[in-house]
Specification:
Elements (H helix, E strand, L loop, with lengths): L5 E7 L4 H19 L3 E5 L11 H10 L3 E3 L8 H8 L19 E5 L5 E8 L10 H12 L6 E6 L3 H11 L5 E5 L9 E2 L5 E3 L6 E2 L8 H10 L12 E11 L5 E9 L1
Parallel strand pairs: 1-2, 2-3, 5-6, 6-7, 7-9
Antiparallel strand pairs: 1-11, 4-5, 8-9, 10-11, 11-12
Helix pairs in contact: 1-2
The protein binds fe (ii) ion (2 copies).
The site of one fe (ii) ion has 6 residues, from loops.
Length: about 260
């Protein structure tokens, strides 16, 4: 018999432009079936051709069964995305941007089995734009959200491994999962921390792998070799879907399993 308090969450790593959308379209239905997914989160900061998101990609993701779209530093790249953040839609931007910036960084949603799922989006400060402290911001918000549900999922959009690991330990036992994003390279360090928080340093990327973190190799090489900016163009070859599946005990909010996904 299926455990009624078990919740399975699929987190899809940064979806890159059209190639990313195509592979999500191809694989999401079978992933949801295979893993009995109750709730699906995807990072969409690179949805619109690698930079930002527009209503077009956002509603395409929603139609495919993605419940919430998280983001990161690129969410501000397009005016349409900044406007979308102000609407009442399940799109999050990192919580620790100044309060005056559009949108919100956390909210509570519902899985297909009626279980409440809190989602928080955070951004790191090491080798990134120096916004407010992610540790202080998340602590306050977790305390508030835990009065409503013990199932809390954090997308920590950050560059530095150490900052991500530190946040994982900081929140162990307070949230169900800390999932790293932003580097676009999936790490093999997924684990359940001692107090029941699922952790991975980076969930990876959903897009073209014959690239430099999604960018066309030719353009990335020009940038590095010449040391000057070149137009942004995403790659097209070797498209993969990355992410993680997390199994959570909904009563306690503790995770019991985390599995890396990399398809095909
Ligand atoms: Fe990204
Ligand atoms: Fe990013």
């Amino acid at each position: 018999m299926k455990n009624q308090t078990q919740l399975k969450i699929l987190f899809i790593a940064d979806i890159i432009g059209k190639p990313g959308l195509d592979i999500v379209t191809a694989f999401l239905p079978s992933l949801i079936r295979k893993h009995n997914i109750n709730f699906c989160i995807a990072n969409g900061e690179n949805a619109a051709n690698g930079k930002g998101i527009t209503p077009r990609e956002f509603f395409a993701y929603r139609q495919l069964g993605i419940d919430v779209v998280t983001s990161g530093n690129h969410v501000w790249d397009l005016a349409q995305g900044r406007k979308l953040l102000q609407d009442e839609v399940p799109l999050l931007r990192p919580l620790n941007y100044p309060q005056e910036s559009p949108g919100r960084g956390s909210d509570i949603y519902e899985g297909n089995n009626g279980i409440s799922v809190g989602v928080l989006n955070l951004q790191g400060r090491v080798f990134m734009y120096p916004i407010d402290c992610p540790f202080k911001a998340v602590k306050r918000e977790v305390e508030r959200m835990r009065t409503k549900t013990p199932v809390l999922i954090v997308d920590f959009h950050a560059e530095a491994t150490a900052e991500k690991q530190a946040l994982g330990w900081y929140l162990d036992g307070q949230v169900s999962a800390v999932i790293g994003t932003h580097t676009h390279v999936q790490t093999a360090d997924e684990r359940i921390l001692p107090e029941g928080t699922a952790y991975i340093t980076d969930a990876g990327m959903t897009g073209p792998f014959d690239s430099v973190i999604g960018l066309s190799r030719k353009i990335a090489l020009k940038r590095f070799i010449q040391g000057i900016p070149h137009r942004y163009e995403i790659a097209k070859e070797n498209i993969r879907l990355n992410g993680v599946v997390i199994t959570i005990d909904a009563e306690s909010g503790r995770s019991t399993a985390i599995e890396r996904i990399s398809q095909p």
